[in-house]
Design a protein that fits this description.
Shape: elongated
Number of domains: 2
Organism: Metabacillus arenae
Protein name: HNH endonuclease
Radius of gyration: 19 Å
Order of helices and strands: EEHEEHEEHH
Strand content: 15-25%
Strand order of the largest sheet: 2-1-4-3
CATH topology of the largest domain: DNA Binding (I), subunit A
Number of helices: 4
GO molecular function, one term: zinc ion binding
Keywords: Endonuclease, Hydrolase, Nuclease
Structural class: alpha+beta
Low-confidence stretches: none
Mean pLDDT: 89
Pfam families: HNH
């Protein structure tokens, strides 16, 4: 069985919904959850969640062991690799990394290559100052 890609939304059922009322999600998110093994298709316009996942932030921080993926320091925030202003879809674990508050604020909504260039420049200046 396949999901109906023309559906306005996909119904989402889960045993842990407190109200018992199905939630709604977009086709792309439903497809992602099915492909990752978090849900199963029960009808062309409905999925049932098979795993209760911790929030995205919790999963990303655990995956990256609270290490900022930009500077290597302790990180307790997550950063969207591609700024959310660039796309209008849901966020997955693959689209985010752990970041320290400083790097997250410095990157802001800059493209990755611009931020990395700025970070490398800053590190070079710091390195030169330490050696002089």
């Amino acid at each position: 069985m396949k999901l109906d890609y023309k559906a306005d939304y996909i119904k989402v059922y889960a045993d842990w919904h407190s109200s018992g009322v199905p939630g709604k999600t977009f086709y792309e998110k439903a497809l992602y959850e099915v492909n990752k093994g978090y849900a199963e298709i029960i009808a062309p316009d409905a999925i049932k969640l098979t795993k209760k996942l911790p929030p995205l932030k919790e999963r990303v921080l655990k995956r990256d062991k609270n290490v900022c993926q930009y500077c290597g320091e302790y990180g307790n925030t997550i950063d969207h690799i591609i700024p959310q202003s660039e796309y209008k879809i849901f966020t997955t674990e693959e689209m985010t990394v752990c970041a320290c508050r400083r790097c997250n604020q410095l990157k802001s909504n800059k493209p990755m290559h611009v931020f990395i260039k700025e970070l490398m420049k800053e590190q070079m200046i710091k390195f030169i100052n330490e050696k002089l």
